[in-house]
Amino acid sequence: MRTTVRGRLLRSRTFYGFLFTAPLLFLFAAFVIYPMTMGVWYALDADAYRALFSDPIFRQTAVNTLWYVGVAVNVKLVLALLLSGILDYPFRGIRLLAALFLIPWAIPALPGILSFRWMLNSQWGIFNYLLTVLGLPSVPWLAQYWTALGAVMVFHIWKYLPFWTIIFLAGRRAIPNELYEAAAIDGASATQNFWNVTFPLLRNLYLICTLLSMVFTLGDFTVPWLMTGGAPGDSTHVLATLAYRYTFTMGRLEWGMATFAVALPVTLLFIGMLLRWVKI
Predict the structure, then answer these.
(1) How far is it, in rounded angstroms, from Cα 76 to Cα 277?
(2) What is the DSSP letter of 120?
């Protein structure tokens, strides 16, 4: 009986399938399940939250994150909606203009940020050079709080604006031309077309893009870290970069996981609103 069961097991496709996937399952457990379990374990440390909320850098970081998400997302999407109208206008050379407009999104983030940092350099940057030509004093862009945080926002907007513009452009081109023809017969102006035809039909898409952009921006690490690294004086951190500072610079893994845990409810709220809106 044992031999028969053993022989059936060896001839079973399920058994060979398990042997084939066992290394992948082991790697998944070692590099995904175990780190996630340890992360949850560290995130449950109550002392870490008391240390966070007593840290003035964390409180400043929470304010920075609100500014970063609020300003960058809204400015980026409003500009994307307006620029999509320009790219939708039928004139010669629009394809070349659209191709040039996609360059910021297509290039890697690192060379773009390094170029932007060079332009903002206090000694030989092009922005300060133009200020001196105009007889104005130079500005230490990355050495003071508001200009450094503003530089992070400006680069984020410049980098990701083409992506959302193309999405709105696709939404505009899905609107039937008959609606604009009917509005033209009624004598509607371009502004009336936008408010009464275009924007109502793009409203749902605009809300979905806003929620998605909030989730992406809230977890953005690359732009803030490479642009300022939290400088000057750890005043321009966002939650993603502060968690890195706690974990790898200070060696406080529980503080880093607690920082992620603080941002998690907001992220889950945005995701829940998005899933409910698109009815998934």
Answers:
(1) 21
(2) T
Q: What angle do CA 257, 262, 263 make, to 5 degrees?
A: 100
Question: Is residue 66 a contact partner of residue 251, using CB atoms and an 8 Å limit?
Answer: no
Residue 145 tokens, joined: 């709080």
Residues 207, 202: Cα–Cα separation, whole Å: 9
144 SS3 class: coil
How do residues 225-262 score in pLDDT, each as one tens digit?
999 999 998 999 999 999 999 988 888 888 888 888 88
Q: Are 125 and 206 in contact (CB under 8 A)?
A: no
For 124, 128, 143, 229, 278, the CA distances from 135, given in Å and listed in that order, are: 16, 10, 21, 31, 54
Residue located via tokens 């508001």: 146
Q: List CB contacts of 192: < 8 A, sequence separation 6 or more.
A: 183
Dihedral sign (CA 17, 22, 27, 29): positive
R_g over Cα of the chain:
26
